[in-house]
Every structure is written in C-alpha cells, then in structure tokens.
Amino acid sequence: MTDPRLVQDRRNPDASCSESACFTFRPESSYHPHMSVSRRDPAPHSHSHSHPHTHGHGTGATPTPTNTGIATTDASTRSANSAAERNTRQRSVIREVLEEADRPLSPPEIYEAAKSRHKGLGMATVYRAVKSLVDEGWLTTVELPGESARYELAGKAHHHHFTCRKCRRVFEIHGCPGELSHLLPTGFKLETHDVVLGGLCAACIAAA
Questions:
Q1: Domain layout of the chain by residue ranges
Q2: What is the pTM of this model?
Q3: Which fold is adopted by the domain 83-184+191-207?
Q4: Is the pLDDT confidence value at 79 over 50?
Q5: What span, in angstroms and rounded, lies between the C-alpha atoms of 181 and 171?
Q6: How many Cβ atoms are within 10 Å of 142's Cβ, its own excluded?
Q7: For the CA atoms of 2, 3, 5, 11, what is the dihedral angle to 10 degrees?
Q8: pLDDT value at position 24?
Q9: Rounded to the nearest 5°, which phi and psi values hold at 6?
C-alpha cells in the first residue's frame, strides 16, 4: 500500500521527475487519514535527436563517394585476362601433345597425354581446342571406317594408316602402293584413295 505521506507536490507542478509520477515527502504531522495520493502523468517524451539529420539538404554528413564501379571493372578485367592466359596455356599443351605423338590421336587420347602437363584440363576444353585448331587449318581430321575421328597435323605428305585391332590405336604408314586405277571398274575415274591396314601393333605383340 502506498504510504499516504507521499503526496503529489501541488505547489511545484513543474518539478522534474525521475519516474512516471512526482511525489513529495511530507512530515508525519501533516498526514491526514483521508488524504489521497494523486498521480500525474509524465510529460510527453521529446523525440528530438542529437544526431545530425542526413536525409535532407541541411548540414548532415555528406556521403563519401565510393569507387565500387571502378573496382568491379578492374576485377572483371583481371578475371578475363586470367581466363585468356589459362586458355592459351591449355592450347599450347594440346599442340605439344599432337606434335610429339607422330600419329593421329582421338580427343580422349589427347586428354590422357595432356592432363598431367596442365592440371585442371578437362575433356570439354580438349574438344573445343581441337575444333578451333581444325577451323584454323592447323589440324586435319582422319576418318577411318568403324572408328571415331582422329586428328593429326595438317600439311603432311600423302600417307596411309594402320589400325591395331587390340589397342585401337592408329598409326601412320609412310608410303603408297602407287597407281590403283587398274583396280577400278571400267569407266571409273580415280581421284583419291585412302589405304587402311589392320592388325597388331608392336606393343600389343610384345605384351601378348
């Protein structure tokens, strides 16, 4: 029960209050049994702020301009340069493999020979590089009956191929049986020919 000796200070209604009501302690001699304690609502809380207003055109802090656009452009340029450099290295490795093979290679064979030279090289990259090198005229396609396409350096002298029936590798045969027109039916004209020999390669014979 509230002590009736604590009553509102009516003499000084503007006195500051630390709680939601203001009370003044009166001596016990002024206590009256029927005296009631009244409560005064606290003054409305001021919503003023000490922080500077930054949303208008006053004296608020001016936003500091950033170089986000420039930084993004620089990062994009570095990323593009890095990708171009990586693609160049991958193409160089693939070219080296084809030059050293001295025989037609399929894309899986190119990948197997090149992956240890460049980590991160994938089959998709090999196929793209091979297609690009064919389009540029650096590679030529070797198509054999019943086999997937192989690729060899363009510009080589006329030659033929040998296919190993065990390891399925394709080898170059330097030389040509010569004129074959006499093998044609009467009335035919020979314009080109491809001779494909088959059997076992030396490695497969040695491993048998």
A1: 83-184+191-207
A2: 0.58
A3: Arc Repressor Mutant, subunit A (1.10.10)
A4: yes
A5: 25
A6: 19
A7: -20
A8: 46
A9: -90, 105
Q: How far apart are CA 176 and CA 71, in angstroms?
A: 63
197, two tokens: 């020999």
Distances (CA, A) of 117 to 59, 90, 107, 120, 125: 64, 9, 16, 10, 14
Q: Are 130 and 110 in contact (CB under 8 A)?
A: yes
Whether residue 88 contacts residue 95, with contact meaning beta carbons closer than 8 Å, is answered with: no
Q: Which residues contact 154 (CB under 8 A, 6 or more apart)?
A: 137, 138, 139, 140
- The span from the CA of 202 to the CA of 191, in Å, is 33
Q: What is the tens place of the pLDDT at every residue in 122-165?
A: 999 999 999 999 999 999 999 998 899 999 999 999 999 999 99
